[in-house]
Amino acid sequence: MRLRASIFFLFIAMSLANTAHACSRAFAIDLEFAADSATLGRSEILKLVSWLDKWRREFPQFESVRVDGIAPETADGAKALARRRALETERALRTLLNKESIHVASHLSPPSSTFKGGNYAAIDLVPLQVDLPYCRPVPIAFEGAAASPSPVKYHPSPEEVVAASAHRSGLAEDALRGLLSNCDASQSAMNICAYRDAVEADLILQHAIANKVEQVPACKDRLEARIARWAAERDRGCKRSAAKAYGGGSLEPMVMSMCVQHENERMAKKIEHQRSCDR
After folding, report:
1. Which of 40, 126, 199, 205 could cross-link to 64 by cystine, CB 3.0-4.6 Å?
2. For all residues of the chain together, what is the average pLDDT?
């Protein structure tokens, strides 16, 4: 058993240290559990939220997601403990991802392994390979052809975002700025910072909609009706997933806002690439 476990961890280390194909790339994080516990602490959940948000901004979709729950083989009920850790981590991920499937596995850590005392879960994200910069074909430049300028991306100013957040939340701008000045100060500050990010993503979405209507005026009514239906589904889905994972907990508003932010970003990209009223 120890030999098989040692080989497994050696294989994982080698896989993460190097890749066989130039387009293969994965991002990994380890979440620590207290000994004999299968419950993620608040600090580990916040670490996961921050880490996932960072990569999700760069890669809208992932090709594969893997969770490995780990427990020391000397722990009481080690196999069951490792499995519960894997499922707990999967539960946290499901509220933050879109619809990507998650492969869940569990393993035992040999006594020779000292990493986090064998009390952790490992997450690997593999983006869609076409989204990796070095996997995209380089366009051929024809001599004499004029280079088409890249469109300038709209980004609302911090003042616009604060004003919109204050208007929507009912908070005074000064009080809002105080909370936003240190997002790690308290759970309330974390919640309002996540809300701010969702509002910012919505402003970008509204700008994309206005641009599309200006480009294709005939699509205005159909596009606005589609967005209204989608927004209702977005809110229901985000509320349901956040409540399922953290219902009644202090993290629920933050996870809800992060879900809304992610959906707003995805829809803005869809609209930017839309070429007709139907698609």
Report:
1. 126
2. 79
